[in-house]
TrEMBL record:
<keyword id="KW-0808">Transferase</keyword>
<dbReference type="InterPro" id="IPR015421">
    <property type="entry name" value="PyrdxlP-dep_Trfase_major"/>
</dbReference>
<keyword id="KW-0663">Pyridoxal phosphate</keyword>
<protein>
    <submittedName>
        <fullName>DegT/DnrJ/EryC1/StrS family aminotransferase</fullName>
    </submittedName>
</protein>
<keyword id="KW-0032">Aminotransferase</keyword>
<comment type="similarity">
    <text>Belongs to the DegT/DnrJ/EryC1 family.</text>
</comment>
<dbReference type="InterPro" id="IPR000653">
    <property type="entry name" value="DegT/StrS_aminotransferase"/>
</dbReference>
<dbReference type="InterPro" id="IPR015424">
    <property type="entry name" value="PyrdxlP-dep_Trfase"/>
</dbReference>
<dbReference type="InterPro" id="IPR015422">
    <property type="entry name" value="PyrdxlP-dep_Trfase_small"/>
</dbReference>
<dbReference type="GO" id="GO:0008483">
    <property type="term" value="F:transaminase activity"/>
</dbReference>
<dbReference type="Pfam" id="PF01041">
    <property type="entry name" value="DegT_DnrJ_EryC1"/>
</dbReference>
Length: 369
């Protein structure tokens, strides 16, 4: 097959004059009385976009998740039910508080937390459920919220790659008690590093806000701190870039969904390939279009990924189950997550890809299988 010189990147942003103008404005004017102008505007714009009352922009989503865990009061002795299939930040932010993770399996069709696995994992110590809108596909929120209501558990949504995803017409991140998104460079809207917490709960917001700014209240004079807090707030320069991207979010979302449709057209009929496709009532961002090599396919997943790389196509293998990492003391059998870990691939969906690039990726995959 004809080689391409173009790097087919796994992810990467679309940067226009708007981003350059906003960042330039922040560099030139974002000081003195304007020192947090873009951060404030980003928080307002983002909250409006997802339909949340409150937003706090952070240096990264990991910090937003940590704030969420701390603000709902997680502590040593508590347990949180969490999907086993995610980037490790999802679990570590729980561990930061001293609470333990109880890892459960995923739905084979969406790779999000399987509600059928939750009940068996609940103990008297369970305080919350942490779900992930995996690769931009909404988790099964009705079922999860129903169980949370029944057992009086709080729900944290890790919506890192899911800016713009919807469940029954409502933006994800606002369906639980608190939601967190990422602006890291491979996400839907980027600022290099960046994150944001959203909530409709005033108490969670107030605690998170205090924790994010060193517990500072000025209640007993300037620089007074009332509690052990963190320096987690997002700077103005970063916010300027995130804000420009958020003003283009529909365009960026449409491109991701277009890229997915190019994959689906070409791969839907390939025997033994399962394409993760949005379920009814769900709008996926398709941040990372993903496939599973089913049993009938003999090709080795890691070999497929490395052969694609030789063709300048940069895909990603499925996440290792977080429960296997050394910091997790307990071990969990989660067979679906184990299968996706071994046989899953996320395909390139950088914003600069054209239909002809996707065509090249799909022809390469078919050849390698
Ligand atoms: C599901 C998930 N949660 C959390 C994070 C952490 O985001 P950040 O890199 O902004 O801290 C990521 C980042 O890739 C992620 O994919």
């Amino acid at each position: 097959m004809k080689e391409t010189k173009k790097r087919i990147s796994f992810a990467g942003p679309s940067i226009t004059q708007k981003e350059i103008d906003y960042v330039t404005d922040a560099v030139k004017n974002g000081w003195y009385e304007n020192y947090d102008k873009h951060t404030q505007k980003l928080e307002k714009t983002f909250a409006q976009y997802v339909g949340a009352k409150y937003a706090i922009a952070t240096h990264c989503c990991t910090q937003a998740l940590h704030l969420a865990c701390a603000a709902i009061g997680l502590k040593k002795g508590d347990e949180v039910i969490v999907t086993d299939f995610s980037w490790v930040a999802t679990a570590y932010c729980i561990f930061y508080t001293g609470a333990q993770c109880v890892f459960v399996d995923i739905d084979p069709d969406t790779w999000t937390l399987d509600p059928a696995c939750i009940r068996a994992a609940i103990t008297p110590k369970t305080k919350a459920i942490m779900l992930v809108h995996t690769f931009g596909h909404p988790a099964a929120m009705d079922e999860i919220r129903e169980i949370a209501r029944e057992y009086e558990l709080l729900v944290i949504e890790d919506a890192a790659p899911a800016i713009g995803a919807e469940y029954k017409g409502q933006k994800v991140g606002t369906l639980g008690d608190v939601g967190c998104f990422s602006f890291q460079g491979a996400k839907m809207t980027v600022s290099g590093e960046g994150g944001i917490l959203v909530t409709n709960d005033e108490g969670i917001y107030n605690r998170a806000k205090l924790l994010a700014s060193m517990g500072r209240t000025d209640s007993q004079g300037t620089f007074w701190s009332d509690m052990l807090g963190y320096q987690y707030t997002m700077g103005n320069l970063t916010a300027a870039l995130a804000l420009a991207q958020m003003e283009r979010v529909e365009e960026l979302l449409a491109k991701k969904r277009k890229i997915f449709s190019w994959y689906a057209q070409r791969l839907n009929t390939v025997q033994g390939l399962k394409i993760i496709t949005e379920k009814p009532d769900c709008k996926s961002t398709y941040c990372y279009p993903s496939i599973l090599l089913e049993e009938s396919i003999l090709a080795d997943r890691d070999q497929v990924v490395s052969e694609l790389k030789k063709r300048n196509i940069h895909s990603r293998p499925g996440f290792p189950r977080m429960s296997r990492f050394p910091v997790c003391e307990a071990r969990f059998e989660n067979p679906v997550a184990a299968l996706v870990e071994k046989r899953g691939i996320s395909l390139p969906s950088a914003a600069n890809l054209e239909e002809s690039d996707i065509d090249y990726v799909c022809r390469s995959i078919q050849e390698l299988l």
